[in-house]
Structure formats: C-alpha cells, structure tokens
Amino acid sequence: xxxxxxxxxxxxxxxxxxxxxxxxxxxxxxxxxxxxxxxxxxxxxxxxxxxxxxxxxxxxxxxxxxxxxxxxxxxxxxxxxxxxxxxxxxxxxxxxxxxxxxxxxxxxxxxxxxxxxxxxxxxxxxxxxxxxxxxxxxxxxxxxxxxxxxxxxxxxxxxxxxxxxxxxxxxxxxxxx
Length: 177
Fold this sequence. Notes:
This protein is mostly beta strands. 5% of the residues lie in helices and 56% in strands. A hairpin with a 4-residue loop joins β10 and β11. The longest helix is centred in the middle third of the chain and has 8 residues, at 62-69. The protein is elongated.
C-alpha cells in the first residue's frame, strides 16, 4: 500500500451550476489537501481523504464569491472546510473506479459516488518523487447539503439551479522507497 499526498498546487475541485436557467456558472476551490492510500494490485483497499477550504471558492466574480461565502451558501465562518472520506472503491474498468464516500458541506454529510477515470501510471519527477494523477466527476443536489438559497425569476424558474456538477483533477505524490 502506497500513501500519496495531494499536490495542492496541481489539484483542483471545479463545479458548474445552472444560472437563471440559461447558462452555466463555473467555479473552483483552490485550496485542497488530503491523502490517498492505494495498492494497484488490490485497488478495493484504497482510501481517499480530502479537505477543501470553503473560503478558497473562486468564480472570477468577487461579488458572487462573497455571496457564496456568506450564510446564504457555504457560510465559511461556521463551516470553513468541505471534506470527503471514502468508504469503498470499486474497479469499473481499466484505470476506472467508483469511489463511494461521505461528502460533508455546511456540516451536512451525504454519500456520493465519484466516477474516477484516467488514473495515470506512476512516474518519477525531477525531484525524485513518484506521482500519479486522476480525474473524478459527480453530481450533487445542493439542497441536500443545506444550500437552499434561491430567488424566483419574474419569468418563472429560479436564479440558481439545484444540480451541481463537480469535477476533481488530482495530482498526488509520494517519496520513492
């Protein structure tokens, strides 16, 4: 079993949500830490743990970011971290896995399934560290996590969609043994 640390400079959690029922707003969280325990010969024993700093949300619009950090959404003062802890990992094909685990946002924990693809082979970087990468996706209902703020549009519908698509791009490293 090898233990990797997430490389926070090369790891990102991105999200996409419908805005006013006409377009998607995209954003990301830039401060992510965590670890992955992984044995390629027995991937079902892997373990994933990640922590995201809620205040690192960025949608390229400062006013919207301030609103997302407020009590209406992430309430970063009370809930400074978003966490994920895997429960089980199921291989679904070559370099593909389902990671089922607990996602906690605003103090609310729900089970989610991450669809992982493109787990890269391990390589040695110029500093002698062994690295791997992967991408994962999932979709959540934001209301399931207490993210209920919305406003009704005059023409019908709502300002913010309920479904949030999440994409996580991970680069992880470990010391060569």
